[in-house]
Design the sequence.
């Protein structure tokens, strides 16, 4: 009786757990382990492949091209994180309190975030069309020099960074508005009674109160920044691409190229392990560093 | 006092001016897409930009009629199926991690959460090899399977289930209700708000998803809308008009859902930031 009861109980638990757990095992956990394994082989899709030790990693880190892709990825990540978090914070501060029209402005600034990266990419390719696109005509009309935008190795990355910021700062704004609204109003009143001016209130109440959300937002932005792919593929990529003179070739794009255009699964796996380690290390560093500036007890 | 009032007034005006400018910059690209969809080739690059085309045309849309109805249908079908599957796996997962007690529960949930940090690029090659080895490459089934597990959705619904007191479930158990009955007749009806949030988030994700179909779909008849839209990019000559029309088609459904369900979007973003 007891055994059949506990068996039934286990069955019930499994019936709830397995729908998500099977997917997790087969498409997340197992692939992660496999990626490590593959990165030590020269697998290219066929039946003949062998263990080659650290060679893929050595090849990657001695290849100036790979180091350049890493650099481009870091550049993209850093600039987008700074501007997305910065603009998100500024507009959250402006829009956190209720006033006439506030929900319209919140909605409008968040709107780009819900659109597909393909639609956004196509729209901006049109706007930044290198000869007679809107942006160039606008620059001519105000007497400024034009640019080849996405078609020039000097400007392609900057254009894509701008578009990424345009599409995503609203997300962080909404995140921070939620955080700001959680800060108790009594803290401001108390600070006001103590004679703190607006700036002091911002530094001693707003920032500490928002810090958990800021930390979360920065973590997310860093992870997403490292993984940028869609814009690169659509606006400067195509099947062979990577932008003019490879100027927009980020790590995620190179992994895609090596895996699905050249079928260098082993090498691409090694690259993907490098990407994963970088992201995990950054996340670890941040959660380590947060103790210095994030306070969870103020709210 | 009056100078303080005046200062406040100026501040208020300044705030509206800044917001108006930024809102304009934010929405202008969408206006360009909308208006260009109805312009003919010769008018597309006219400057200054005219919002209302001199001669509005629908040719850009009719030129899509060969492939796009199928792409749209594929996207609708797949998004629908994946949203349902995700809702099921996320809700059952949320239930087993909140209302049932078993050994290893917190550990496994910890793994789910940790998996949110794993970049998709780190698992995509083995995923591809697994899908290929079970002969599902270039099928819609591959996209459904890859989309079935959602750490974010499980987390989102779990957060909500945690706010429902256990005493509800206990009372039902004493009355002899089975767990699946409690789950479907008690928990789910009480959680409508979060379920809608989850539906909206997975809808948006799969309606917009480009990367997974790019890897797994090669047959033109199986393409989804975002993948089909890049047909234009690979051609030598860019047909800007139809391209803008296609972008518009893909934007409209998400836009409509956003207009009616803005608060669910906000809830989803906000609750993803709550430490759990």
Sequence:
């Amino acid at each position: 009786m007891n055994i059949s009861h506990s068996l039934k109980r286990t069955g019930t638990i499994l019936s709830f757990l397995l729908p998500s757990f099977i997917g997790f095992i087969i498409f997340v956990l197992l692939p992660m382990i496999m990626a490590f394994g593959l990165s030590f082989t020269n697998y290219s899709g066929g039946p003949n492949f062998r263990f080659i030790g650290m060679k893929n990693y050595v090849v990657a880190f001695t290849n100036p091209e790979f180091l350049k892709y890493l650099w481009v990825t870091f550049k993209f990540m850093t600039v987008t994180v700074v501007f997305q978090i910065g603009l998100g914070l500024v507009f959250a501060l402006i829009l956190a309190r209720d006033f006439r029209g506030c929900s319209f402005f919140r909605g409008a600034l968040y709107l780009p975030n819900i659109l597909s990266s393909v639609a956004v990419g196509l729209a901006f390719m049109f706007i930044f069309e290198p000869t007679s696109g809107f942006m160039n005509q606008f620059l001519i009309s105000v007497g400024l020099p034009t640019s080849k935008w996405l078609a020039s190795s000097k400007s392609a990355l900057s254009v894509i960074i701008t578009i990424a910021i345009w599409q995503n700062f609203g997300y962080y704004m909404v995140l921070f508005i939620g955080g700001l609204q959680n800060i108790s109003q009594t803290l401001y009143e108390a600070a006001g009674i103590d004679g703190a001016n607006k700036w002091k209130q911002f530094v001693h109440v707003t920032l500490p109160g928002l810090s958990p959300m800021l930390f979360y937002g920065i973590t997310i932005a860093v992870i997403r920044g490292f993984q940028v792919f869609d814009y690169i593929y659509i606006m400067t990529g195509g099947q062979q691409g990577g932008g003019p003179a490879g100027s927009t070739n980020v790590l995620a794009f190179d992994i895609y190229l090596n895996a699905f255009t050249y079928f260098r699964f082993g090498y691409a796996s090694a690259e993907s392990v490098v990407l994963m380690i970088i992201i995990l290390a950054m996340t670890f560093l941040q959660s380590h560093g947060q103790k210095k500036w994030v306070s969870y007890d103020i709210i | 006092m009056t100078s303080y009032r005046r200062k406040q007034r100026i501040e208020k005006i300044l705030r509206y001016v800044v917001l108006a400018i930024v809102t304009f910059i934010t929405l202008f690209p969408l206006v360009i897409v909308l208006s260009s969809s109805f312009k003919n080739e010769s008018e597309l690059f006219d400057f200054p930009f005219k919002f209302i085309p001199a001669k509005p045309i629908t040719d850009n849309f009719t030129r899509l009629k060969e492939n796009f109805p199928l792409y749209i249908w594929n996207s609708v079908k797949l998004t629908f199926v994946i949203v349902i599957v995700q809702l099921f796996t996320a809700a059952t997962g949320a239930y087993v991690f909140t209302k049932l007690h078993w050994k290893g529960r917190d550990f496994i949930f910890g793994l789910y959460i940790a998996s949110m940090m794993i970049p998709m690029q780190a698992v995509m090659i083995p995923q591809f090899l697994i899908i290929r080895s079970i002969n599902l490459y270039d099928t819609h089934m591959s996209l459904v399977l890859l989309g079935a597990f959602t750490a974010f959705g499980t987390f989102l619904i779990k957060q909500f289930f945690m706010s429902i007191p256990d005493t509800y479930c206990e009372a039902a158990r004493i009355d002899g209700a089975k767990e699946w009955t409690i789950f479907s007749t008690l928990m789910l009806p009480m959680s409508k708000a979060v379920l809608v949030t989850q539906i909206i988030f997975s809808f948006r994700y799969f309606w917009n998803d480009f990367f997974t179909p790019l890897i797994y779909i090669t047959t033109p008849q199986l393409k989804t809308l975002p993948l089909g839209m890049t047909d234009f990019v690979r051609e030598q000559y860019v047909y800007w008009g139809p391209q803008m029309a296609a972008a518009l088609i893909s934007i409209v459904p998400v836009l409509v859902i956003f207009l009616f369900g803005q608060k669910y979007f906000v809830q989803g973003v906000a609750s993803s930031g709550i430490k759990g």
Q: What stands out?
A: The mean pLDDT of chain A is 90. Residues 2-38 of chain A form the longest helix (37 residues). The radius of gyration of chain A is 24 Å. Residues 56-293 of chain A form a domain with the MetI-like fold fold (CATH 1.10.3720.10).
